[in-house]
Amino acid sequence: MSIAEVKQTTDEKMHKSIETLKTNLSKIRTGRPSPAILDHVHVDYYGSMVPISQVANVTLVDARTLGVSPWERKMAQVIDKAIRESDLGLNPSMLGELIRVPMPPLSEERRKELAKVVKGEGEHAKVAVRNLRRDANDQLKRMLKEKAISEDDERRAQDEIQKLTDRCIVEIDKVLSAKEQEIMTV
């Protein structure tokens, strides 16, 4: 493995960590509904548990309501029950074949709790990025030990990986501050 390959794989893995963070943050409920909030709610579909998005369209009806329209009429009751029993604290209502999921406004206390959860998710992402940096540096040290690269090349590569790590952590901080602002907005 060359220095360029080590840097490229580290870069790709760090950006995957950031994408995972964004995905995890999209599931955290704010005052504004997002169809992604129902992604981790699963329903029984012919004997297998699948996400709601695989058996219905999830859309925004208005600023505070999600609409779930099942592709099969008989799935409406199953989806309604799954949303009620999820840990999201939502109370859907049936309107013919459409399931309306109103998002209750968040209390100030709940907003602060969610901000703590967001910070925790961010810390996990930062730890993942730092672990990737450590792994890349270990690979470079191994290459140096095997005399595949010179000490100068190893030092330069470590500096570049550190710069990459710093950029990723700044990007994580930007994502976190945007999500915290979204949560704290009434």
TrEMBL record:
Domain Ribosome recycling factor: 21-184
Keywords for this protein: Coiled coil, Cytoplasm, Protein biosynthesis
HAMAP family: RRF
One GO term describing the cellular component: cytosol
GO molecular function, one term: ribosomal large subunit binding
CDD domains xref list: RRF
Cell compartment(s), UniProt: Cytoplasm
Name of the protein in question: Ribosome-recycling factor
InterPro entries xrefs: Ribosome_recyc_fac, Ribosome_recyc_fac_dom, RRF_sf
Organism (species): Quisquiliibacterium transsilvanicum
Pfam families: RRF
